[in-house]
Amino acid sequence: MNSRIKLFLVPLLFIAPWNPAVAATDDGIPLNRERYAGRSLAADFTIGPCPNTPHGLEQIKGNLYRHTTGAGLAVHSGLVLVTGEGALIIDPAMTCTATWLRDEIRRRFNISVTYVVLTHAHADHISGAQIFQNDGAIVVANQRAVEPIVGERIPTALPDRTFDKEMTIRLGDETVRLVRVAPSHSDSMTMVLFPGQKAVQCTDVCESRSMPYNDFLDFYYDGWIETLDWVLQQDVEIIDVGHYTPATKADITAERTYMIDLHQQVLDLVRSGQSWDQLYRNVHFAEDVRKWTGFDTMHILNILGMYRWVSNHRRGEW
Fold first, then answer.
1. All domains of the chain in start order, with CATH
2. What is the 3-state secondary structure (H, E, C) of the chain?
3. Rounded to two decimals, what is the model's pTM?
4. What is the pLDDT of residues 145-169, one digit of tens each?
């Protein structure tokens, strides 16, 4: 090679621009958000000033953190992955604290948020995503979340990327897997797996010795059990449930036992011909379940939700 070619190649390599796409990639499906331009939005119940709302960002393991918003039984949480190429956060939860979380990540780690993952289309978890999207973050959700976000007029960001069954995000040296197991707490649920940290985000489906919320609301019993089975099959040690405290596999096993037992008791009582007024008085709870967070306020509501599911999913004798 002659000297003139050598001199030409060296400066060319020196000035070659760094391509940030190499450090952050995914196989999601781009959503044409323009088709929803001007969509009607409900009032954002999380946008008002909340200077006294507790919030935090706590290290869980290595470069995996957990953000929290709210106090006591009202706390909402999501995992945060910190890398040199940006952060991935799950479910901002509140618009009024999303700005704090964005600024705290920037202050502590000198990085921006690259991805925001929405676990499902319920406003109490996904509010505030627009704060990060406006700063350039990529918002991701299961494709089934788009319709309820639009239809229910949820005032949050529409996803930039969606997926059907699985999606992979690579951020720096980290890989994050998004999985739709089955309809469970909603039809739009996403499990978020962090293989390198042996952690999973299982919001609202998994419980940490706490009662499932209310009368199950947006609920699919069969898929709920299937999702718990999937979590138990994963090589994970950290299970964030979106509320309260993270769970262990022992907690998930106990929850699975509770759900199956509640379903079977309600089904047996319905088959025996008991009306609601009789039935709810005849469901029995194990002693350890009676000690779970929220038992006093949620156990009858849980019976009601399961009664509704059973009533709508049996043919009867004819």
1. 15-248 (3.60.15.10)
2. CCHHHHHHHHHHHHHCCCCHHHCEEECCEECCHHHHCCCCCCCCCCCCCCCCCCEEEEEEECCEEEEEECCHHHCEEEEEEEECCEEEEECCCCHHHHHHHHHHHHHHHCCCEEEEECCCCCHHHHCCHHHHHHCCCEEEEEHHHHHHHHHCCCCCCCCCEEECCEEEEEECCEEEEEECCCCCCCCCCCEEEEHHHCEEECCCCCCCCECCCCCCCCCCHHHHHHHHHHHHHCCCCEEECCCCCCECHHHHHHHHHHHHHHHHHHHHHHHCCCCHHHHCCCCCCCCCHHHCECHHHHHHHHHHHHHHHHHHCCCCCC
3. 0.91
4. 999 999 999 999 999 999 999 999 9
* Alpha carbons 312 and 153: distance in angstroms, whole number: 28
